[in-house]
From TrEMBL:
Keyword Hydrolase: yes
TM region(s), chain numbering: none
The keyword Hydrolase appears for this protein: yes
Name of the protein this chain belongs to: HAD-IA family hydrolase
Organism: Nocardioides abyssi
Pfam family, one: Hydrolase
MF (Gene Ontology): hydrolase activity
NCBIfam families: HAD-SF-IA-v1
Key words of the record: Hydrolase
Length: 221
């Protein structure tokens, strides 16, 4: 069995990592918003654009357009966007993993091959701290699969990529849980701060609040 993890919700505390960078930028430029406020505005546009993104559009392209829109919304100079995105992408190596991740993945990896299933480009995935914890041959990105979450297509292509082995996906965000379940993947929800499920959306029958219990949960799927 192959077990994939969502990169920027289940494994990485991306809001904390990116907000530090954006907070420093805001302080330097005298902007009134906090790093968290800037991140939330950018992330909202990122998620919206990913819903309709298709290849050959890259994750970098989506992120840049999202940053342009965020700065435009807030009345900031859009000419900063390209340089600001470069800083964010470079900083990804410093974005923290959730504290339970390293041990939790190691426990799962004792019995199964583990990988990532993420909307990022290949080079960005390689910069993350999570990349070193999984099988590099199983880093299933939007760039590799040619589709973006939450489209069912990315999950179907991921399952086909690892066939005939069975794929189980560990997701945290509402759209990832919903996308994986609607595509028919066996799905474990790993609860993370700031992520709540859609009230009308499907729910995984297996849910854990700590990665330390993931190995047991995956075995029971």
């Amino acid at each position: 069995m192959i077990v994939t993890f969502d990169l920027f919700s289940a494994l990485t505390d991306s809001r904390t990592g990116a907000s530090r960078v954006l907070g420093d930028l805001a302080g330097t430029r005298g902007w009134s918003q906090s790093g968290e406020e800037l991140y939330d505005r950018w992330d909202g546009h990122n998620k919206a654009l990913q819903r309709t993104a298709t290849t050959p559009t890259t994750f970098h392209d989506v992120s840049l357009e999202a940053l342009h829109r965020a700065w435009r919304d807030l009345g900031h100079d859009e000419s900063y966007a390209a340089g600001d995105l470069s800083l964010l992408e470079e900083s990804v190596a410093d974005w923290p993993l959730w504290p339970d991740v390293a041990a939790g993945i190691a426990d799962v990896a004792a019995d199964h091959r583990v990988g990532l299933l993420s909307n990022v480009d290949d080079d960005l995935a390689r910069r993350t701290r999570a990349h070193a914890l999984v099988d590099p041959a199983l880093v299933l990105t939007s760039q590799r699969l040619g589709a973006y979450k939450p489209s069912r297509e990315i999950y179907a292509r991921a399952a086909a990529e690892v066939a005939p082995e069975r794929l189980v996906h560990v997701a945290a965000s509402a759209r990832d849980v919903r996308g994986a379940l609607e595509a028919g993947l066996a799905t474990v929800r790993l609860v993370r701060p700031g992520h709540v499920l859609d009230e009308t959306g499907p729910r995984s029958s297996v849910e854990v609040t700590d990665a330390a219990t993931l190995a047991e949960a995956v075995a029971g799927v």
